[in-house]
Amino acid sequence: MKQKNRLTLFAAIMLAITNLTFAQHQTHPNVILIMADDQGYGDLGITGNPHVKTPVIDKFASENIRFNNFYVSPVCAPTRSSLMTGRFSLRTGIRDTYNGGATMATTEITIAEMLKQAGYKSGIFGKWHLGDNYPSRPNDQGFDESVIHLSGGMGQVGDITTYYKRDTSYFDPILWHNGNTKLYKGYCTDIFTEQAIRFIESNQQKPFFCYLAFNAPHTPLQVPDEYYQMYKDIDPASGFENDDRPFPEMTEKDKESARRVYAMVTNIDDNVGKLLQKLDDLKLTENTLVIYMTDNGPQQYRYVAGMREKKGSVFRGGVRIPFFMRLPSLFRGAKEIETTAAHIDILPTIAEICNVDLPHNRIIDGESLLPLIKNETTDWADRSLFFYWTRRYPELYNNIALQKGEFKLVGHADYNAAIENFELFNINNDPYEQNNIVLENISIANELKSDLDRYYNELINSENLINPQPVIVGSKHENPIILNRNDAGGERGIWAQEEVYGKWHVKITEGRYNVKFKFIKPIETKGRMYLETGAIINQIKNENIGVDIIEMKNIRLTKMECDLIPFYSTKGKNIFPFWVELEKVD
Questions:
Q1: Which tens digit of pLDDT belongs to each residue from 135-145?
Q2: For residues 386, 388, 394 and 400, what is the CA-based torsion angle, rounded to 10 degrees?
Q3: pTM across the whole model
């Protein structure tokens, strides 16, 4: 009898533990955030594109929560920093997609770090683009698992493991798994989805955050042939003859790009289907928040639902994106929401849904979307949204905008331009931004310009912008360390040039180092290799012709924060390395 009672008591305890675990899991739902790269608002069937095949995403959108006026930044890295932190990108130190401006401050608190307080495991699969070195990598910013490419895209100069693959960079790539290189087989979008599914399977017993950040359909426009065959014969400019919305003029190059983009998007759609099916198979659908979104407008001209311009522009074609979400345990059924929302709202929304505290001691620019979903009254429908995009730093009144309520003020003007040189649109009446009404509404324009000035002056003086995050050289967390072109500053627009002034902002740990300088092309003439670190200059004569790597060994570097400036001097020209590796040896 005593044995039976003990068994009954044990069963009751186990049931209570199970119920408690389930209740805690319900309180802290799983989160899957899916982001496509350079997929515009018009690159889905549900947004009116007659050519692209996206049945999975279309169904997901039509059956769940759909925000019809959702905005992001005009380009990649700024959007991703706002997404991760709930803050305008300039507050985080992100000011560009390269030029040394795509490294987020390590003091920023990401969604992954925020969710750790509730015991979440976090994984990222795909594109990070917020810093490739310690202390700004995903694993330094709260992620437990990461399988990523470097810089802004595979095949770009900053992604040193895929750059030289050129036209095959999206296939069988060497990626970075938790900070170390690893060869993967297959097509990149398939690989990132497979790794995300593996992460979900491994962490299904506890709350998890999965950030599936596809690099497609970003250039280079590489896609498996079976998908390209679906679109090779279409005319992407056809089918709009009776459409009275503005439509961009498409060159033959634009049309071919559209075919490839649509093929890449259909591949994404298939992979989203695999992931959603896995949630069903694991019985995780009910309590998993799934968000689908993109990071900015399309890179090339194609159908964009009549909106003006594309990626890089502060007009709606550059910053309005599709945004869909699902969490059956909290809300069911289809719902369309017209209230303006933005990337800065995602972190606060996840915080409220997952019952975790927002980051303290900092401005959170976003608001939770939950009241909108629940039909509760909000007081932020007419808040201001600030947009900008120019290389290096924001340029006063050039490609800059502020949207508040139904009005949007856009500047493509000089720093001292009069209000008459701005454009003002009523988005409700003119969603395609065709009719400039500034002259008839000077007082409204001036009010918005005052708000724009306030945002600009506040954000341009952000601490993380004034004192940018240095790369830490000589840390035990990353030794050796490779500095790549994406994170190099110096001349505006530094990319794959040889004769260009470049540098990296670093904080050096005192010690002795072996340094390798890799060049884009082999060295053709004799010369001298220089390494400037503050007031310390090391140089070495090079007489080896035809090599693409020069080494300096056993260099003594002191503790300092400085610009690290390497160059090869030969016959009156200075050649900047493709990348620099520093290994601390004592």
A1: 999 999 999 99
A2: -90
A3: 0.94
